[in-house]
Amino acid sequence: MKKYWFCIIGPVEEEELRKYSGADSLLRIPVRESFNKVFGEDEVCSSGWGITEENYLKIRKIITAIISGTEVNITCTACNGSGYYDHNGSPRCGACNGTGKEIY
Ligand SMILES: [Zn+2]
Predict the structure, then answer these.
(1) Could you report the per-residue pLDDT of 41-73, keeping only the tens digit for each?
(2) Is the pTM of this model over 0.85?
């Protein structure tokens, strides 16, 4: 069964990235060349900057859940998991459709 290898590295200040043309090519090109040298042509080589510490923790939690086959349960930051914006009869949270989870 073919699978994907996933890597997140950092953190680094954005000002540091601006020193390099294309920013992510600093890492993407060496990784892609190494992969192709060992395994031949790749189908996917995806990367991007801008993942905050908060999003990194969410991504790590999601990937860990997917790999282990467990359910992903991320609390919605808009309603803090309640499913509603407040407790004064407001409608369901639009960010999570009232589930209280960002990803479901
Ligand atoms: Zn919500």
Answers:
(1) 888 888 888 889 988 988 888 888 888 888 777
(2) no
Parent domain of 38? 14-68
Does 19 reside within a domain?
yes
Give 92's DSSP letter.
B
**How many angstroms does the Cα of residue 74 sit away from the middle of ligand 1?**
10
User: How far, in Å, is the centroid of ligand 1 from the Cα of 76?
Assistant: 5
Distance (Å, rounded) from C-alpha 22 to C-alpha 64?
Answer: 30
Q: How many angstroms does the Cα of residue 75 sit away from the middle of ligand 1?
A: 8
Residue 64 lies in a domain: yes
Distance between Cα 31 and ligand 1 center (Å): 38
Domain count, the chain: 1
78 inside domain: no
Alpha carbon distance 97, 40 (integer Å): 44
